[in-house]
Amino acid sequence: MLLALDTATRLASIALYDGQRLLSEASWHSAQQHTVELMPRLVDMLEQAGVTPTMLSAVAVALGPGSFTGLRVALSVAKGLAVAHDLALLGVPTLDVVAYPHRGQPLPVCAVVQAGRGRLCWAMYGGQQSGWQSQGEYRLSPIEEVVAAVKATGRETLFAGEIGAGTAVVLQEALGERARLASPALSLRRAGYLAELAWTRYQRGERDDPVSLSPIYLHEPAIKAGRQGYKLPDVAVRQEHIRGESDRVADPPIY
Hints:
By secondary structure, the protein is an alpha/beta fold. It has helices at residues 34-49, 68-85, 94-99, 143-153, 165-175, 184-187, 191-203, 233-236, 239-243; strands spanning 2-6, 11-17, 22-29, 58-62, 88-92, 109-116, 119-126, 133-134, 139-142, 157-161, 179-181. It has two domains: 2-93 and 189-203, 2-Layer Sandwich (Nucleotidyltransferase, domain 5), CATH 3.30.420.40; 96-186 and 221-246, Nucleotidyltransferase, domain 5, CATH 3.30.420.
């Protein structure tokens, strides 16, 4: 039995998975209250499923990128359970969870997490289902740089993850038909996806060290090419939308 925990952003999610069935799952939007919300919801889920910590064999946690404080809430709980009950601890990058339901999709996938102040944490994914993987590093960039990267590919791209209304407007105006947006349901970062990814690692006999496992934080370079001359006018006029409505999707600052 595997328990999956994700408090990487204001969207939180938990799940129970036994390798064949998703026994229970809950997702909710938190108003920066992960510390007080996670444990009561976790206790309720375990009680409803009739599961005790001694029945678990592994615990998975979303590692980030995400909010500085949010990431540490689930990671602390996961480490505590792993040490107290001798469970396998398995960390999974947040953007891998976002991209997971779109594996095998013919279009390249851009998985995103809102980072505040008009920025996105993002990574590109592609390949066939058997060889599905990220196509580069996890990045923290202004949305102009995400747009530029997609334009450079010359291909339609599926965007998935925390895409607020303002972000959607910017992407569609800048990229036109090359921007395909996943539906809200398919964009939801579910702990069930985290559980399946972690279970694959667990079956391979992998486990992370509770002492050394750390969150993934992305640090913006001091000098960025996009700020040395590159600018998209059609994106710039929409930056107020990003800094307004869609900033509320995530828990800034995200590093």
